[in-house]
Amino acid sequence: MGSLFCGARLRLLAWDAEYGPEVALDAPVGNGEEVDLAVEVEPARWQPIQPHDAVRPARVVFVDGVRRIDVRLLGTRGDAVFHGLFGSYAVGTVVLQPGSARLGTHVVGRRVVLGAGEALREPVTIAPALTYEPLSTPEREPDAPLRALQSDMRRVEEAVARDAAAGGDALVVADGPLTFEGTPGERVVGYVKRVHDLHLPHSCLPLLAALPAGARTPLFALRHSKRFARYSWFVRLAAPAPGAASLYGLARLEVVASIGAEAARALADQTAALLPGLAPSPVRDPRSPQNLLPIGGLEAHLRTRLGDRRVVAAAIERAVVKEALHEPTS
Amino acid sequence: MNRRPDPGEVAAQTTPVGVVLGSMDATPLEFWIGVAEGRAVQLDDLVVVEERLPAGDTIRFYGLVDQVRKRYEGQPFDSDAFRAAEGSLPVQISYAAHVQVTRLDPEIFVPPQPGTEARVVRGEDFQRALSFDRMHKRMPIGLTRTGEVIYANLEFMDGTRGAHASISGASGVATKTSYATFLLWSLFHSEALGADATNAKALVFNVKGEDLLFLDRPNRKLDAAMQQAYARLGLKPGPFASVGIWAPAKRGRGAVMPDTGSRQDGVQPYLWTLHEFARERLLRFCFAESTEGRSQLGYVIHRVERELEQAARTAQADPALVVDGQQLTTFEELVDLLDGATLDSMVRGAAPGTLDAFRRRLHAAAQRMGHLVRGDADATGKAVAWQDRQVTVVDIHALHATAQSFVVGVLLKKMMEEKEAKGTARPLVFVVLDELNKYAPREGDSPIRDILLDIAERGRSLGISLLGAQQTASEVERRVVANAALRVVGRLDGAEAERAEYAFLGRVGRQRAMLLQPGTMIVAQPEIPVPVLLTFPFPAWATRPDEVAGDGSDPFARARRASGRG
Fold it and tell me: Are residues B374 and B299 in the same domain?
C-alpha cells in the first residue's frame, strides 16, 4: 500500500495557521553568534534533564505587550514619499503567587510614527484621552514604521521588566529574547515562544524531539559581539500527540550569562518545573501550548485597554479628512 | 407617619456604587450598571442615576435592582474558573446589576448616558424612587431587607381608586394569613384611614387551623427586634383591641354552645334561625357545589326559597317557621317536610327526577350544616354581629366544606345587602378570606362565587375591600383576581409561578417567588411599575395558643382566665 505523502514524513504544526508557524527555522546560523554547548554537560553526554527538586518561586511576574496599527499613512514632502502610521501598544504584567494570578500594572502608548527621518514636532490629539506621541525612524521601507513602533514597545517592556525585578525575589518572565539595551536583572528570563533559530547543531534534533514534557535541555551559552552573553535552554511544555511535529511544544528561554552557570541552572530547573503547568489547551489558545495562560490572559486584557480599533481608526480618519479639507490646495 | 431621617442618616443616603454600562443597551426603562471594585449592589437595592442633559435639565433615573451578576470579562471558557482558582490564569471579573426603572424625574424618556455614576439610595431618596412621596394617603405594608419602609396607596385599598388585595402562596410557608392580618393591623393603626379608622370594620374568616382566634391576645414571642420593626413602620405593636370571636354552634338542642378548639373563653356561638333562613332566602347556600348546567335544579331551589320566604312573611314568629301548617323547630324537620308532597306542591310541573336530585342534595347538606339553622327559642339572637367590634373573626375551620360555604355565603350576602341598603361606602369593611380558590373557583358556578365576584366588581363603590388569599391564583375566578389592586405573592410552587396570573412578577420575580422565606412577600401595586420584595414583622398578636403571652406552659393562668373573664 502506498503512503499518502509518497514516503515523505509530514507532521502538523500546532499553532493556528493565522499566527504563522511556531517553528520557523530560517537559513542556517551564520550571524556571528558563537554557541557553547559545554556549559552544564559535555556535548557528547547531552541528555534530557528532568528537574525533580526545583523550588517554585513565591512570585512569578510575566511581562508582555500587544501592539497594533490603528491606521497607515502615506506622506509627501516635495517629491519625496514616506510611510507612516498611527499605532497603539500596551504593556503590562501578571503576578502569579500560589493560588492567585492577578493583573499588575499596565502602560498604554500611542505613537504617530513616520519613516524616512520625517517627524512631527507636537503630539497629535485626536480626541480626549487619545493623544499620539511623535516617533521617527530613518528607514524608508513600508514596514519600517511598524518596526519602530515594535522597538518602542520593547523599550517599555524592558522598563516594566526591570521594575518588576527590582527589589524582589520575583522571577520575571519577559516576552521574547532578551534584546534589552542594558543588562537585565539577574532574575529576568526571556521566554521565546516561536523558534526562529535552534542555535544548536542539527545533531541535537533527536534530543529535542525526545524531550519529555516538563524536561529541559542542558544549558548552552550564546555569545555575540553586539549583545551581552546569555545562557539558554529549551523546555518541552507538553508532550506531542500522534501526528504532531517532532519539535512540538518547545520554548526557548535565556538569561544573562553574568549570573553564572550555577544560578542559570537553578533558573532553568525552575522554569522547566513551572511553565508546563501554565500551558493552555489547544481549545483555549490558538498558540497552545507556548502562549502560556498568564500571557494569554494578559494579552486579552491589554487589547481591551487599546480601545476598539474601528472606533479609534474612525476618529483618526475624521481628523485627517478635516485636515485635508482645510489645507490649501497646491 | 412620615418618619424624619435621623441626622447623619441623610449624609449616608446615597452611596456611589458604579456607572451605567455601555456594553449592554441602556434604555429609559431598564439599564445595567457596572459595580465598582470594593462596592456591593444587591437585589432590591434602589439606584439613582443623575444626569445633566445637553439642554441643561437634570434628569434622575430611579430604579430597582432586580438582577445582579458576576462573570469573567471577555470571551472566557468554562474551564477558566479552574485555571483562575489555581492561580495560572489572570481574569477580570465584571460585576453588574440590572436596574428596572421605577421613576424618571422629570419624565423625559431618554436613555441614561453610559459611564454616568450610579448611586444606591436610602431614606428620602428611596421613598422618592418608589413614588411614595406622591401618595397622599399611604399605609406601611412592610420593610425592605435594608430596613426601608414600603408603603401602599390607601386610595387603592379604600375604594377611592381601587380596592382588594389578592395574596397567593404555597400552604404553610407563604404566611398568607399572617400578612393579611398584618395589613389589617396597618390599616387600623397607621394614620392612613384617618377618621374612617374609628368605624371601619373587618370580617375575618378563620378557615384553617386556629391562627386567627387569638388576635386579641399579645404574642409572648414578640421581642425587641420585632418591636423595632414595628417602630420603623410607624406602628405600635400589640394585639387587636376590639375583637369578637365567633364559633359555630355545637350540634344538638338546648342552650347554644360554641364548638371551639383550644380557645374557650370569649367565644360566642353563631347560628341562624329557621325563620331567618326562610326570610333571607338562604337555601341556595346549602348547595355549595356547582349548579351550573343544572338549570332545572336551580329552578327548584328558587321556587322553594320563594315559598319559604312567603311562609316566613305570613308567620311572624321568629325563630320558628310554619310551612304548610306545620311548625318547624329544626332543620331536619324542614328537610323531612320537603321529602313529602309539600315539595311537589311548591314546584308544580317539575320532573320527578329533578325533585329527587334536590331532595338528595338537601339531605346531604343538612348533615353538614343543618345544626347551624334552628327554630327553637334558644336560637334567637345568635347571628354574627360583625358590626359590634372592629374585628370580627368567624371560625369555620372545623366545619365541613358545605357548611363553610354556607357560613361564608350567608354572611357576605347579608353584608352586601346591608351596605346596599345603606347606600354609602362608609364605614369601610375589610373581608379576610383564605382559600378563595374554593369559594370563587375559576371553573363552575355557585351562589357564593357570584357573591365574591359581586364584591370584587362592586365592592369598591360599596366600601367593601376583600383581602383574599389562595394557594393558587390560577384557580381563582379571573375577575376576582383581576380586580385586586394590591397583588401579593409569598412562596410559590415552581409550576404555579410560571402561570400567566403571575406575569406581573416578571422573569426574575417568578424565580424569586420560589425561594421566598416565611415573612417575605413580593408586592405589586398600581402606581409602582415593578413588584417590590418586602418583609413584614412577626405578628404582635398570638397566632397559636402557646404564643399567648402569660399562657403557654402556665396552666393556672389559663384556668384563671377561663373562670374569670369568659
Answer: yes
Shared domain check, B263 and B388: yes
In this prediction, residue A313 carries a pLDDT of: 96
Q: Check if B315 contacts A (Cβ < 8 Å).
A: no
Q: Are residues B202 and B340 in the same domain?
A: no
Closest A-chain CA to B79:
A284
Would B511 be classed as within a structural domain? no
Average pLDDT over residues B462-470: 93
Question: Are A294 and B90 inside 8 Å of each other by CB?
Answer: yes
Interface contact flag, B88 A96, Cβ < 8 Å = yes
Tell me which chain A residue has its CA closest to the CA of residue B74: A300
Whether residue B61 has pLDDT greater than 80: yes
Cα A132 to Cα A312: distance, rounded to the nearest angstrom: 11
Lowest mean pLDDT among A15-29, B194-208, B491-505: A15-29
Domain, as residue range, for B190: 163-269+383-486+541-556
Contact B90 A304 (CB under 8 A): no
Q: Rounded distance, CA B474 to CA B404, Å? A: 22
Q: Is the pLDDT of residue B4 over 90?
A: no
User: Considering its fold, how many domains does chain B have in total?
Assistant: 3
Q: How many CB pairs under 8 A join A and B?
A: 44
Residue-level pLDDT at A24: 80
User: B327, B344, B379: which is the final residue of a domain?
Assistant: B379
Q: Comparing C-alpha atoms, which of B351, B464, B361, B381 is closest to residue B417?
A: B464
Indicate the residue of B73, B77, B90 with minimum beta-carbon distance to A101: B90
Residue A28 pLDDT exceeds 90: no
CB A210 within 8 A of CB A271: no
Residues B260 and B391 in one domain: yes
A212–chain B Cβ distance below 8 A for any pair: no
Same domain for B422 and B547, yes or no, is yes
Q: Is B73 on the interface with A (CB under 8 A)?
A: yes
In a domain, B564, yes or no: no
Chosen for mutation from B88, B93, B94 (greatest number of chain A CBs closer than 10 Å) is B88
CA distance B75 to chain A (A): 9
Cell 321568629 found at: B318
- The pLDDT of residue A146 is above 60: yes
On chain A, the residues whose CB falls within 8 A of the CB of B22 are: none
Assign residue B52 the CATH number of its domain: 2.40.10
DSSP secondary structure string for all residues of B288-320 = -S--TT-HHHHHHHHHHHHHHHHHHHHS--SS-
| A297 with B79: Cβ contact below 8 A | no
Q: Where are the beta strands (DSSP E) in B398-515?
A: 429-433, 464-470, 484-489
DSSP string, B207-264: -STTGGGGTTSBBTT--HHHHHHHHHTT------SSEEEEEEBPSSSSS--B--SS--
With a CB cutoff of 8 Å and minimum separation 6, the contacts of A314 are: none
Summarised one tens digit per residue, pLDDT across range B262-319 is 888 889 999 999 888 998 899 989 887 655 556 788 888 888 999 899 888 887 667 7
Rounded mean pLDDT, A147-175: 93
Bridge partners of residue B63, in order along the sequence: B47, B101
Residue B137 lies in a domain: no
State the nearest Cα–Cα gap between B90 and chain A, in angstroms: 5
Confidence tier at A263 by pLDDT (50, 70, 90) = very high
Are B276 and B257 members of one domain?
A: no
Q: Bridge-partner residues for A96, per DSSP?
A: A60, A101
Mean pLDDT value of segment A78-82: 92
Q: What is this model's ipTM?
A: 0.83
pLDDT of residue B2: 42
The mean pLDDT of chain B is 87
Domain assignment of residue B499, yes or no = no
pLDDT at A254: 95
> pLDDT higher for B360 or A113?
A113
B265 and B229 both lie in a single domain? yes
Interatomic CA distance for residues B164 and B431, integer angstroms: 9
Domain co-membership, B263 together with B279: no
- Domain harbouring B255, CATH code: 3.40.50.300
